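Sharing a chain and its predicted structure for anyone who wants a worked example. Both blocks are below, sequence first, tokens second.
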Amino acid sequence: MAELIRLLARDEKARRLRESMRRQLGEFYQYLEQNDVIEISLNPNGGVWIDRLGQPMQCAGEMNADAAEVFIDTIASIHRTTINRDRPILECELPLDGSRFEALVPPVVAAPVFSIRRRASSVYTLAQYVADGIITDDQKYVIESSVETRQNTLVTGGAASGKTTLLNALIAHLAVAAPDHRLVVIEDMAELQCDQPNAVITHTSDNVDMRMLTRAAMRLRPDRIIVGETRGGECLELLKAWNTGHSGGLSTLHANSTRDALKRIELLLLEVTENPLPDLITSAINVVIHIEKRDGIPGRKVTEILSVAGYRGGEYQVNRLA
């Protein structure tokens, strides 16, 4: 009986929260329930922009600053924190669906802004990528082979290029190709979809960063280590892990091309070392997949897949796979 009461109370709390968000977002709430919507963004001028899978961003209307501030304050209070002039940035998960929520208020912006990066409601499979012309059949074969043969793989691209969505597709194939492998997943926000039966999902907190979680992952007996996004000092720990018995790892990296990705890894390593360690990079990273959001053309495209062959004469030696 006590458990039933607890569940009913939780459901009632969720219902009230949903209704509160519905009122505060008004006409824009509907986009939280549409599966093809990737991101909902409010600009300082009040314009609300919607990013749909396979389509260019479109302005869906306007939201006044007062309404935006109330909505942002509600999200902050749910997480038992505040956002104000002294603490003008809020980074958290949106209640109910776990979407990534980023908000800024004056003085760092002219008026309140926010971005809701929706968590995928379902995994976009590699077969669907082929059907939609994002990857070719040859690229699909190379990607699947890389996962199956335990190649440490980076998915690279610019902002909103679809890196996380593609990484989810690789994880989905991994669940089919190696269902007995134990995974440790490390991420800031809950964006990755992992149905592997033997998996540990970890998230950063105010007191625990990606570097600490990457070190802890080594002690959890992983077969593979997956990092949602490599972007700081944890890069050194990750490369060492991938290079010492935990092959077949996956991660994303913000970069403008496959070759730029390797140079960016060097910059990340220089945050914690005095040497960019190119030999470690080439031994730990086997495959780089680059995906782009195409200017003037709806949708994304995997433009290149490279294997990393070595480092000679100050340059990385790579081979184009597809």
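Comments welcome. Residues 1-5 have pLDDT under 50 and may be disordered.
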